[in-house]
Design brief:
The complex is a heterodimer. The longest helix of chain A is centred in the first third of the chain and has 26 residues. The relative contact order of chain A is 0.13. By secondary structure, chain A is mainly α. Chain A has a domain of 278 residues: Serine Threonine Protein Phosphatase 5, Tetratricopeptide repeat, CATH 1.25.40. Chain B is mostly beta strands. In chain B, β42 and β43 form a beta hairpin. The radius of gyration of chain B is 36 Å and the shape is elongated. The chains are: A mainly alpha, B mainly beta.
Chain lengths: 500, 1145
């Protein structure tokens, strides 16, 4: 009898233990009222939705402060001086090359870039789940987009900050502390690998391409730019040639149409950040930043929106840029607009401002919808020319430069140009062709001309503008890289760039 | 073992209860003894009966049937005896018994008609005791002179005995020269030689050592002497008559270290309990409640207290577990302490019917009511303000024509004007009825409880009522198995108004409306909207008549809750038992709010275009728990005692709710949603959590001197991230009962001395249900020119876990002078780790901030509990004092130890939590007197541009010449220095008087309403003190109340130390006078139950410097953890006087 009871006891213990075996799934609970990782990753549209999300951080930093890092420190953009407003000092320091810790604009750019990278990492981690794809090519397209976007985020990061932490998977805040800055070549290796992967995926998904997404041409063109930046001219020549041979792209006949908000994703646009006036999230308000602060609603055409001191009068064309346009270059009129009115000193002046970003078309408030180009065909042509010319193939390069100049109605043939001459011309062409398209600072870095050009530009600025401090415009090797945002140095334990 | 005096009376009651049981059991004695005139000898009685292999009980039963004798025996005496057989065809009973005596090794002894049975080593012994020639009778009483029923009176060396009746009387025939033994559980036995006496009255004294007081602990009970942790039981006797909605209201002032706050007087709500300080900034500090083994939510106690579902009359015991060694068994839910509530469940072999009725009235005490300016003073304020504006704007002196007609003759405005606050108050009734029926035989018991509680609010149109019903049944299946089930249901109806929110809420309005205006028109009809006289310069605010708002607006709660429980208990072998139980809580809640078109708001008078709106919230929840526990309890060897517990539990909770806003209602008559033109907002909530746990406890005790407890729990929770899904909570405790040591035995003054030490960890899992799971965030992007969904995966936290609290506790229990002095003290140090705090994280993760487990906070404190019994005997005085000090300190916060700002006043924080300081200190400006002409002339005077003569001035703490946000600092501490409670209890014969007082010393509270009203902008009526405002340099008032502002606005309601007041208070929270009708009187009217009459008063007196009504009050829309001590438009605490009676038979 006693034995029997022990048996029963054991049985109960076993039953109790059996109840435990299901406990792992018993404890797995997901919210029912919204999408979350517990009920997601089930269908093609989930992944397409994530792919659409990859572009969002790029859109965010282009509309907020990328121009501040890519144009303002260069000899293209400056700001409208206003003696009473001290709030914009950290931005003014960028223009005046008085970089220091806490310089404006870098924090948001860092955060958005890594947010974008995290999105690409997550997508690539989850996309191989066993689900049924309505069209398997969409899966390739999606992977291609993820590799392309990750490469683009790193490419902008490495050009602004130098070597940055390479994060290729989803990490937690604890793991993040173990990440240190990688070397510049290591970052470029990641970029080249990602773009190569993107090209492979895009090659099998061309028929499902949709305007606005990254594409085969975009990946090849970006890879070309990366090789050019690495001075690997033969490689650059090879991939840029592939873009040209795709036959998908051509220059718009009229340069000013490039900046018509109603014409988007045209044959010259290889990859552009997409904007629309439809709602606040989809729009930017660049013209409200770039209009002269004193212009009221005359430039923005929205007198109901007050443009105030700190946040407007930015990225004004410099005299250096204006002078760079050759006589007869139609690009000048499209790029540099003039508003005549009182400046802060009360004196009526002709104040130049960026003509490429337009006032709202239909939105009644400050929503504007111009796309912002990342890559367009003229860029490919000039990069291809540069790649050829740098290898001594100046003769082969000239027709591509001419192609771009012809559209600008500069029809003088370049047949006499030697290699150095052409090199200088390409640099000048790029300055005027792409002004305010976030290229100039990187072009100066790539060609190694930054210190020379900026310091010369600075002398001219200081001579013309008495309010500038004498310690400005002293670009040194250290300042070719921006400082890593200070809070990230603290939180992440990262090493700062030299000189800061 | 000595017992705590606090529990003394509770135990007396229990003793009586036990006595009744014993009396029932020993009824046979009485029957046998009574009615016996002539006793035949067993030798003369013939038996005609044959039995073959029967149990001895059966044999006795048969013999009882065939003869007139009764067999008297203890079950243990006849346990495990061999089966017996006999044949008797007319043999004498004596012979038969002699036969049985041989077979079963039993002794028989005849006393009258009883045959006493005892085990025997001798083969054969049948004794006939005949010479019954002395009858002794008397009464047995306790030291207080109360008769003790159920006392066993037996004759030494024989089986002769009886028991006292309900009046303590006994009568017994005994052999000459006998010695009587009077014994009763809980009392020292007495041996008395009968001698020649025929009346022997006895006074039994309590035997402290024999009382094995049982304490409820997690998953079981323990002898009090075995307890190693800091566990306090509430003496419900001190508070049983207080007519309140929920038991937590009865705990006020009763236990050291258990801070029970009345945050508001809302009927059915407004309570908070904090045990040993604040251990969390983000996950709540309320303890875990365990009702009959079922962990119970403590959320949402402000509007509706979850404990208000339980009828206090059904509560059997309340135990509070404080240190980690006792809370660790509740693992991830134990960090804030555990309150274990067990309900009554009837008894075996007993029938009891109890009825209680209480009714009372409640009123708002005068102290603490808003003391506002009278209408004349108010009119002067309006005039001053208008004059100041005219002076500044138009540079002229105001004339009478500038003032609204109502203020032109202030001298004619006599009397206080309308007391809007008083207008909405009433004398409210409260009533409480309870019926309890319980019945049990020796294998089944059941109990049925019914209750009805109704508390009208002291604010008109508010109230709370509750109907409760409980049925429980338990039955034994054979010797080893017990099964039982219970269902307990409550229906709650609550009529709410909006209070404790701000100036604008239903109560807030009534604290500032223009006193010149009237609530009723000449015909006595209510005026729905109170419009202050208009003036182009300044008008006091207009708003809805608060009485009208109360009358017309609906805010009704109809909730139903049911607790179910079914269990089985199986004693597998002696000492080893297995228990399985299944508990459920089902809840349906229903809230409906309707505001008709005619109810306006501050400066928003209803128009023809106004419309009614409604809000509906319906939700249901289901919570189940399965528990499997195995306990093993055994003594072995010399003085070793072992008690072990092992268990596995699984729990699941789900809730589903829907919120609907409907508007506009074209008419106000039909209020259901279908009368509305549409649903303007809707939302569904669905949530679940689940837990599985393993638990174990080991108690070891050597010779009652050395005690050791180890507990362990492992919780798995759906709330924890994947990498931390399971958490372990160990604890360890030792205790040394020094008084049990041989060398201490000689110290007679010391009844008990025990030293305790424990350390362990427990957790707080109130971290939200799904916070570790990454959400999919949605945004927009453009593809092909069309808007598409752009998704991203949010931040997940697979590490997310409980907040962990490690606590060290050292305690001493000292009982002296036959328990007349009882002293319990504890020191504790509790460190809470892994507090959930929003933290900056490296952006390379893709995210910038995340709520993670990072902060640490420490609570250290001491608790004292002192009981004194200065007088014992017929008159009894017991005094109990408890006191607790807690010191809270934030050790670390987030990554950068950035302070956490909390609270909101005009979009500025009011509290700050920073490292090195207690959680949530008041944060604001420091008042620096009023602006003088010299200040204005001083070019370095901070904020000169905004200064006005006589205006308020705040310190420029950082001395940068500008008075701005950087000049804020810590300006007060909402946490008290210590809090205390004391209970005096007097008894004389049947009368008893209990006085409970409690209070706190130190700590600050913000008089929130003054803060928002007192700004001299003349929008509102304000505190009378403002009559002493600055009027001119010659008439500067009291220096604290500034000048009426002109164009430069007043900054008086900038949050500063002006509004922080001392929250110290002493409150007589309860006085109860009761009288239990002695049996001797009741008996005369043929009533032999217990009848008790009592009157009780709550909230009778409060001594405090605080100018508001309730220094414990708290705004409901401010976190009690992060923005405590903010009293605004608080529902007043009523003073209650009630009378009641209880009947038990």
């Amino acid at each position: 009898m006693k034995k029997n009871k022990i048996k029963q006891t054991l049985l109960i213990c076993l039953l109790a233990l059996a109840a435990l075996s299901c406990s792992e799934s018993f404890l797995e609970q997901f919210p029912e009222t919204g999408l979350n990782e517990g009920n997601f990753y089930k269908q093609q549209s989930d992944f397409v939705g994530l792919a659409n999300g990859l572009y969002v951080p790029l859109r965010e930093y282009h509309k907020s402060d990328f121009w501040l890092l890519a144009e303002v420190p260069s000899d293209n953009g400056t700001y409208q001086f206003n003696a009473v407003d001290a709030a914009a000092a950290s931005w003014r320091n960028i223009d005046e090359i008085r970089f220091q810790n806490g310089v404006g604009g870098t924090g948001g750019f860092w955060i958005q870039s890594y947010n974008g990278i995290a999105r690409t990492n997550k997508l690539l981690e989850e996309i191989d789940r066993e689900i049924t794809w309505d069209n398997p090519a969409v899966k390739d397209r999606t992977k291609g987009e993820a590799h392309f976007m990750r490469a683009l985020y790193y490419f902008n990061l490495v050009r602004i900050f130098g070597g940055v932490p390479i994060v290729m998977e989803t990490i937690t805040y604890e793991e993040a502390k173990d990440y240190q800055r990688a070397s510049v070549p290591a970052v470029y290796e990641v970029i080249v690998n990602d773009l190569t992967a993107a090209i492979n995926h895009f090659q099998v998904s061309r028929e499902v391409h949709e305007p606005g997404r990254a594409s085969l041409g975009a990946a090849q063109a970006l890879l070309g730019k990366v090789y050019l930046t690495l001075h690997q001219y033969a490689e650059a020549e090879r991939v840029l040639k592939q873009v040209i041979d795709l036959g998908e792209y051509q220059l718009l006949s009229n340069y000013s149409e490039l900046f018509d908000p109603s014409i988007k994703n045209h044959p010259e646009s290889i990859f552009a950040v997409q904007y629309s006036e439809a709602n606040r999230a989809l729009s930017h308000r660049l013209i409200f930043h770039f209009a002269p602060s004193t212009s009221g609603g005359e430039v923005t055409m929205r007198s109901n929106i007050i443009i105030n001191n700190s946040w407007s009068g930015w990225n004004l064309p410099t005299d250096d840029l204006i002078d760079a346009f050759e006589p007869g270059d139609i690009r000048k009129e499209a790029s540099v607009a003039i508003w005549t009115g009182p400046d802060y000193d009360g004196v009526t002046k002709q104040i130049p401002y960026v003509g490429k970003y337009k006032p709202p078309v239909s939105a009644t408030d400050d929503r504007t919808g111009d796309n912002i180009y990342v890559l367009r065909y003229a860029d490919v042509l000039l990069m291809y020319a540069e790649a050829l010319n740098e290898q001594g193939k100046t003769g082969e390069a000239i027709p591509f430069v001419e192609q771009v100049r012809t559209r600008a109605q500069l029809n003088e043939p370049l047949t006499e140009y030697g290699q150095d001459q052409l090199s200088a011309l390409i640099a000048k062409e790029r300055q005027v062709e792409f002004c305010f398209e976030n290229q100039r600072w990187f072009d100066l870095l790539r060609t190694g001309k930054a210190i020379e050009v900026i310091n010369a530009h600075g002398e001219r600025e200081k001579a013309a503008k008495p309010y500038l401090r004498s310690d400005g415009f002293n670009l040194t090797e250290d300042f070719l890289l921006f400082p890593i945002p200070e809070d990230q140095i603290l939180i992440n334990g990262l090493e700062q760039n030299p000189g800061y | 073992m000595k017992k705590n005096l606090l529990n003394h009376v509770a135990y007396m009651t229990k003793l009586f209860t036990i006595a009744f049981i014993i009396q029932c059991l020993t009824m046979s004695f009485l029957l046998a003894w009574n009615g016996n005139a002539q006793v035949k000898s067993i030798e003369e009685v013939r038996v005609f009966l044959s039995l073959d292999d029967v149990k001895i009980e059966e044999a006795f039963e048969k013999l009882e049937k065939h003869t007139s004798y009764n067999f008297v025996f203890a079950t243990r005496e006849i346990k495990d005896l061999p089966l017996i057989s006999f044949e008797s065809d007319g043999r004498s009973l004596y012979d038969v018994l002699a036969d049985i005596s041989v077979q079963a090794k039993l002794n028989f002894k005849q006393v009258d008609l009883n045959i006493h049975v005892k085990k025997s080593d001798v083969d054969r012994k049948v004794a006939v005791v005949e010479n019954v020639d002395v009858t002794v009778s008397g009464t047995v009483r306790d030291e207080n002179g109360e008769p003790i029923p159920g006392v066993t009176v037996s004759v030494q060396g024989t089986g002769i005995g009886t028991a006292t009746d309900v009046e303590g009387r006994y009568s017994l025939s005994v052999p000459e020269g006998s010695t009587l033994i009077f014994s009763f559980i809980g009392f020292e036995s007495q041996n008395i030689a009968v001698g020649e006496r025929s009346v022997i009255d006895v006074v039994l004294s309590e035997d402290m050592a024999s009382l094995d007081e049982v304490v409820v602990v997690g998953y079981g009970t323990m002898r009090k002497q075995d307890v190693t942790g800091a566990v306090s039981m509430v003496d419900l006797d001190n508070v049983k008559d207080i007519p309140v909605a929920s038991i937590d209201q009865k705990l006020i002032g009763q236990l050291p270290g258990v801070k029970v706050q009345s945050l508001s007087g809302v009927p059915g709500g407004g309570m908070s309990i904090e045990i040993r300080g604040l251990g969390s900034v983000g996950a709540g500090n309320q303890p875990l409640y365990v009702i009959d083994g079922m962990p119970y939510s403590s959320e949402g106690g402000l509007d509706l207290n979850p404990l208000s579902y339980l009828s206090p009359a059904d509560i059997e015991s309340i135990t509070v577990l404080k240190d980690a060694s006792s809370t660790a068994i509740y693992g991830s839910r134990g960090a804030n302490g555990v309150v274990i509530v067990n309900t009554k469940s009837g008894s075996y072999n007993k029938t009891q019917i109890g009825v209680s009725m209480t009714t009372g009235i409640q009123q708002v005490p005068q102290k603490g009511r808003p003391e506002l300016m009278n209408q004349q003073e108010f009119a002067h304020l309006q005039r001053d303000r208008i004059a100041a504006l005219i002076r500044d704007r138009e540079d002229r002196v105001a004339t009478e024509d500038d003032y609204p007609i109502e203020y032109r003759n202030p001298e004619q405005l006599m009397g206080p004007g309308t007391d809007w606050y008083d207008l909405i108050l009433r004398t409210a009734k409260t009533q409480d009825y309870n019926l309890q029926v319980s019945r049990g035989n020796d294998h089944t018991k059941y109990s049925l409880n019914l209750g009805y509680f109704d508390q009208q609010g002291v604010i008109k149109h508010t109230g709370f009522n509750r109907i409760t019903g409980k049925l429980m049944v338990e039955s034994k299946l054979g010797d080893a198995v017990k099964i039982g089930a219970s269902i307990s249901s409550s229906f709650i109806n609550q009529n709410r108004i909006l209070t404790n929110h701000g100036r604008n809420d239903d109560l807030g309005n009534a604290m500032w409306i223009n006193p010149v205006m009237k609530p009723f028109d000449e015909n006595g009809n209510i005026i729905p909207y109170i419009e202050s006289p208009y003036n182009p310069y300044k008008s006091a605010f207009s708003t809805v008549n608060p009485l009208y708002a109360l009358q017309e607006t609906t805010r009704e709660v109809d909730n139903f809750q049911s607790l179910g429980n079914i269990y089985g208990n199986w004693e597998i072998i002696e000492g080893l038992s297995y228990r399985v139980s299944f508990n459920t809580i089902t809840e349906n809640s229903d809230f409906f709010y309707f505001k008709p078109s005619t109810v306006g708001r501050e400066n928003s008078k209803p128009t023809d275009a106004s419309f009614g709106t409604s809000h509906t919230n319906k939700s249901k929840s289901f919570n189940w728990l399965i528990e499997n526990t195995m306990t093993y309890d055994r003594s072995f060897g010399e003085g070793h005692h072992l008690n072990a517990l092992l268990g596995y539990t699984a729990q699941s909770y789900s809730r589903d709710g829907i919120n609907l806003d409907a508007a506009p209602y074209p008419a106000d008559i039909i209020q259901t949603i279908n009368a509305a033109q549409g649903i303007t907002n809707w939302n569904e909530i669905a949530e679940k959590w689940r837990m599985t746990s393993y638990l174990g406890r080991l108690n070891y005790n050597y010779k009652d001197r050395y005690l050791l407890t180890a507990t362990w729990r492992r919780d798995g929770s759906s709330r924890f991230g994947l990498y931390n899904r399971f958490a372990s909570f160990p604890s360890f405790a030792v205790a040394w009962t020094a008084s049990e040591e041989a060398f201490m035995k000689s110290v007679t003054a010391i009844d008990e001395l025990k030293l305790r030490l424990s350390y362990g960890s427990s957790g707080n899992n109130n971290i939200g249900n799904y916070n570790h799971i990454a959400r999919i965030n949605s945004g927009d992007y453009l593809i092909g020119g069309s808007q598409v969904a752009a998704l991203s995966v949010g931040v997940g936290n697979p590490y997310l876990t409980w907040e962990q609290s490690n606590q060290l506790d050292a305690g001493i229990d000292l009982y002296l002078f036959k328990n007349r002095l009882r002293f319990v003290a504890d020191y504790y140090s509790r460190k809470s780790h892994n507090m959930l705090i929003s933290n900056k994280i490296p952006a390379i993760t893709g995210h910038t901030s995340q709520t993670i487990n990072i902060g640490n906070v420490q609570n250290q404190g001491v608790e004292f509990d002192l009981g004194i019994s200065p007088i014992r005997g017929e008159f009894v005085w017991d005094l109990n004092v408890n006191l607790a000090l807690n010191r809270n300190k934030v050790l670390t916060l987030n990554q950068d130890n950035e302070p956490i700002y909390s609270g909101n006043n005009d979009n500025n924080p009011t509290h700050v939590t920073m490292v090195g300081k207690p959680i949530a200190m008041f944060y604001g400006y420091v008042f620096d007197g009023l602006v003088t002409a010299e200040d204005l002339a001083d070019p370095n005077f901070p904020s000169r541009a905004n200064a006005r003569l006589g205006g308020e001035k705040f310190k420029d703490l950082n001395e940068d010449g500008i008075r701005n946000g950087e000049d804020r600092t810590i300006i007060g501490n909402p946490h008290e220095k210590f809090f205390f409670g004391f209970t005096n209890r007097f008894q004389y014969k049947g009368a008893d008087l209990t006085i409970v007082a409690h209070g706190q010393y130190g700590g600050s509270v913000v008089n929130g309403l003054r803060q928002t009203l007192d700004n001299l902008n003349a929008h509102f009526n304000m505190h009378k003190e403002w009559v002493n405002r600055w009027r001119s340099p010659e008439d500067p008032g009291d220096g604290k109340h500034g000048s009426v502002p002109g164009q430069i606005g007043a900054s008086a309601h900038t949050f500063s130390d002006l509004w922080i007041e001392d929250a110290s208070f002493l409150k007589i929270s309860n006085v109860t006078l009761g009288y239990s009708i002695p049996k001797s009187i009741g008996g005369r009217f043929g009533y032999d139950g217990n009848l008790r009459l009592y009157v009780t008063g709550q909230n009778l007196l409060m001594l405090t410097k605080y100018k508001g009504a309730n220094p414990e009050a708290q705004s409901f829309n401010r976190s009690i953890d992060l923005a405590p001590g903010w009293d605004i438009a608080s529902y007043p605490l009523a003073r209650t006087l009630s009378a009641g009676l209880s009947l038990a038979f």
